Structure formats: structure tokens, C-alpha cells
């Protein structure tokens, strides 16, 4: 039947979901790039500017779980349309005021609104993509996320130099409104409701969806009682420790510790982002192939995640000790590419574990990621200050992150999280059964 399927699901993911995630990263990065210009023009203090920059991340973290639950209850179509409209309006409104309070308020609302993007995207992906293809689907989402830093910094800098910082916010805000409108008209919460889908593809998607419980009230409360819920959050916190190095300190490290010029840093700092962008596509294809080959969610997720954690940590530590700048950049690219492999598996596992509660699961995971985005840079800065060595800070971050590999021994993504309510001990290692058999086994465990 596969040859009769029109692949609308991939058009939905690649042309609707991923672009919204991409424009979200443009909006998120714009203020960081424009901050020096805005601070000088408006006469803001360094403390005021730092508050404007950081309030976004606090609002983004706080909104994760409520946004995930909203996506489950009301559907990604309504939630993502409403929130993308709101955050785009905040981008348009930002240049209209000149006070600290105005900019602070705009960033506060922007962060809260954008907290719905990822959880809504994960819920949409779960509903549209069969379980056997979800790793590839998550790779497309992550590609949109990682493409942002590659494009945003040079595009924002060029726009500011050519047209001024106001044009950045007006342009990105207008783009967000346009993509939000396209999302509303092009997306449906269930494949069967889409006017352009074929019956064959509806049946194909439905056949690849494992049975799941209806999302009931009290999902978060019940999840909080599951120790694997906490383990999954902590492992993501450890993963983002490494990723936060690339998002915050990499340019500074290359200039201060490696002596690169501003121009050279701009080129070299972009290469790890290119590496992770490519890596998520490879990881998605590989993970889905492994799932088809082994017929085991456990074997398709856990070894890949554990290997990615270890390779990323070792490569980061090795980069801190290398002498040649070419070797340093090569190891940093390898480290970040390995993070990409783990990211693909993590977001596939949120759907494996959460099923009907994938929105809550993704929101919870992103909360830990947001906390790590604060803790990671602060920890590295503290270690560098105490030891006067960037290498020591990178080794500490890498060593802590490597512990995430051990936590994956306890994640068991093959077993839905709330299946613990009725199930007994964890099942023995899966055999090489077909994917349909694996899904059936998981349902029988879930139902006791």
C-alpha cells in the first residue's frame, strides 16, 4: 500500500510545522543580536538589558507544561495558531516602545507564547507520523530549530546594519503572522480531517499508530509519581549542558581561549551548527531504520542515546586539550553532531513514553532543558573563574553530561509511562519481533 500513499504527512511536517519552529528561533535570537544596539540607543543599563534578555527564558520555561496540556486538549491547530499570532504581535510591538518596562513586557509575553511551539509540534507529529517514522519526523523539527542560529545571527546583523534594529522585529513579526495563517489553513489535528489526504495515507498513518489511552485529567499529577518521568527530565538536563556551551560560550571560547579574530570566529563558530543540522537528518533515518530492523523501540532508542552522550562528552573533553585549531573545530563538530543524535531519540521517546500525554511529556522535558540553559553557562563560567582554564570547564560539563548515558538504562522508552499504573515489573529484553508485535506487547503491558 505504501506506493499509493501521497506523503502529505511529510509536507505537513516540512512545510508547516518546521517553518514555525524556524521562525521562533529567529525571533528568539533577534534580541540577543540587537541587544548592544538597543542598549546604546535607548540608554539602558547592563542590568536592565540582562533582565530583558533573561525574562524570555523564565517565561518560556514556566509555560512549557501548561502549553503541552493545552495542545493535547484543544489540538495543535488552535494552540499554535493562537500563540504564533501572539508572539508575532509581540515582535511587531517591541520597537513601538522605548522604555525598559515596554521591552521587558514584550519579551515576557513572547517567551510565554513561544513555550507552546515545541509541545504543539510534538503533538502534531505524533498524530500525523506513524511510530516507525517518528525519528525522521523529529529530525525535521530539530532541523528547523538548528537552522535558526545558522541564519538568524548574520541575517539580523545585516538587517540592523542596512535598515536599523526596528526593521528586524517588524520583518520577523510579519513573517510569523504569515506562517501562522498558512498553518491555520493548511493543518488539521487529525489526518482524516484534511481535505487533501488520500484514504490510503489515512489508513497507513492509522495502522502505524500504537493504541493509547485517552488523555484524561490529572496527567501531570500521575506522571510526577513515576520515577521514569524524573529520570527522563534529568537526562535531558544533562544533554543540554553540552548544547548550552554552543549556544552561549562558543564564540567567547574561540576568541579568548583559542585566539581567533572576530572574523575567523564567525566562520568557525557556525561549523558545529552545520554539523548538528546535518546530523539530525542522519540520526532520524538511522533510528527509523534500526526500529524497522530490530522491531524493538528499546534497541532503536537506548543504544543510540547512550552512544551519543558518550561520544559528545569525550569529543568535547578532547577538544579542550587539542592544540590544532582544525582538530579543535573537528572535535567540536563531532561533539555537537552527537548531541543531535541524542536529541532525535529524546523527542521520539517523548512520544513513545507519553502517547496520549505527549504534550505533557514534551513540556516537562523542555522545562529541564530551559533550566539547563541557565545552569550550564553559569557552571562553566564559575569553573573557568576558579581554575582560570576553559578546558577545565568543558571537561566538567562533559563529565556531568556523560552521566546521562547511564540514566538511559532506566528510561525504557518501549514502555508507555502511565502503563506503570497497571503493570508489574519491567518486561525482559525485547526480541526481534516485528514492529506490530512490539506495539501489541506494549499495549498488553499497559492494560495489565
TrEMBL record:
Q: What are the GO cellular component annotations?
A: membrane
Where is this protein localized, as stated in its record? Membrane
Q: Which domain of life is it from?
A: Bacteria
* Membrane-crossing segments per the record: 42-62, 74-93, 139-161, 167-187, 227-246, 266-291, 303-319, 325-346, 367-384, 390-411
Its placement in the membrane is given as: Multi-pass membrane protein
Record keywords, A-Z: Membrane, Transmembrane, Transmembrane helix
User: From the Swiss-Prot or TrEMBL record, what is one GO molecular function term?
Assistant: transmembrane transporter activity
Pfam families hit by this protein: MFS_1
Q: Which residues are in the Major facilitator superfamily (MFS) profile domain?
A: 13-416
- Keyword Transmembrane listed? The answer is yes
Positions of region (Disordered): 421-448
**Keyword hit for Cell cycle:** no
SUPFAM superfamilies, A to Z: MFS general substrate transporter
InterPro entries xref list = MFS (IPR011701), MFS_dom (IPR020846), MFS_Na/Anion_cotransporter (IPR050382), MFS_trans_sf (IPR036259)
The identity of this protein, by name, is: MFS transporter
The organism named in the record is Paraburkholderia guartelaensis
Amino acid at each position: 500500500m505504501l506506493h499509493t500513499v501521497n506523503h502529505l504527512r511529510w509536507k505537513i511536517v516540512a512545510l508547516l510545522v518546521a517553518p514555525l519552529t524556524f521562525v521562533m528561533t529567529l525571533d528568539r535570537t533577534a534580541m540577543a543580536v540587537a541587544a548592544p544596539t538597543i542598549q546604546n540607543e535607548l540608554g539602558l543599563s547592563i542590568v536592565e538589558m540582562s533582565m530583558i534578555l533573561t525574562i524570555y527564558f523564565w517565561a518560556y520555561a514556566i509555560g512549557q507544561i501548561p502549553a503541552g496540556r493545552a495542545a493535547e486538549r484543544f489540538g495543535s491547530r488552535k494552540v499554535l495558531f493562537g500563540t504564533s499570532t501572539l508572539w508575532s504581535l509581540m515582535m511587531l510591538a517591541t520597537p513601538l516602545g522605548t522604555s525598559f518596562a515596554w521591552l521587558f513586557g514584550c519579551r515576557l509575553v513572547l517567551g510565554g507564547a513561544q513555550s507552546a511551539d515545541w509541545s504543539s509540534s510534538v503533538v502534531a507529529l505524533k498524530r500525523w507520523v506513524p511510530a516507525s517514522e517518528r525519528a525522521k519526523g523529529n529530525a525535521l523539527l530539530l532541523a528547523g530549530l538548528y537552522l535558526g542560529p545558522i541564519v538568524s545571527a548574520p541575517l539580523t546583523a545585516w538587517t540592523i546594519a542596512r535598515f536599523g534594529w526596528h526593521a528586524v522585529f517588524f520583518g520577523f513579526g510579519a513573517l510569523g503572522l504569515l506562517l501562522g495563517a498558512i498553518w491555520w489553513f493548511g493543518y488539521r489535528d487529525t489526518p482524516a480531517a484534511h481535505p487533501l489526504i488520500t484514504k490510503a495515507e489515512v489508513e497507513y498513518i492509522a495502522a502505524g499508530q500504537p493504541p493509547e489511552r485517552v488523555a484524561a485529567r490529572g496527567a501531570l499529577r500521575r506522571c510526577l509519581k513515576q520515577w521514569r518521568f524524573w529520570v527522563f527530565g534529568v537526562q535531558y538536563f544533562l544533554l543540554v549542558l553540552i548544547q548550552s556551551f554552543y549556544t552561549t560560550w562558543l564564540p567567547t571560547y574561540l576568541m579568548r581561549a583559542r585566539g581567533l579574530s572576530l572574523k575567523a570566529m564567525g566562520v568557525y563558530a557556525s561549523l558545529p551548527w552545520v554539523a548538528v543540522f546535518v546530523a539530525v537528518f542522519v540520526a532520524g533515518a538511522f533510528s527509523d531504520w534500526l526500529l524497522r530492523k530490530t522491531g524493538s523501540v528499546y534497541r532503536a532508542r537506548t543504544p543510540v542515546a547512550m552512544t551519543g552522550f558518550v561520544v559528545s562528552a569525550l569529543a568535547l573533553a578532547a577538544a579542550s586539550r587539542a592544540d590544532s585549531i582544525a582538530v579543535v573545530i573537528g572535535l567540536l563538530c563531532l561533539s555537537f553532531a552527537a548531541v543531535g543524535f541524542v536529541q532525535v531519540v529524546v523527542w521520539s521517546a517523548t512520544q513513545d513514553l507519553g502517547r496520549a500525554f505527549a504534550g505533557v511529556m514534551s513540556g516537562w522535558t523542555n522545562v529541564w532543558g530551559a533550566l539547563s540553559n541557565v545552569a550550564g553557562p553559569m557552571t562553566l563560567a564559575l569553573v573557568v573563574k576558579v581554575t582560570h582554564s576553559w578546558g577545565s570547564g568543558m571537561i566538567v560539563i562533559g563529565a556531568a553530561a556523560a552521566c546521562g548515558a547511564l540514566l538511559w538504562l532506566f528510561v525504557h522508552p518501549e514502555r508507555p509511562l502511565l502503563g506503570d499504573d497497571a503493570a508489574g515489573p519491567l518486561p525482559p529484553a525485547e526480541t526481534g519481533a516485528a514492529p506490530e508485535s512490539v506495539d501489541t506487547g506494549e499495549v498488553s503491558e499497559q492494560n495489565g
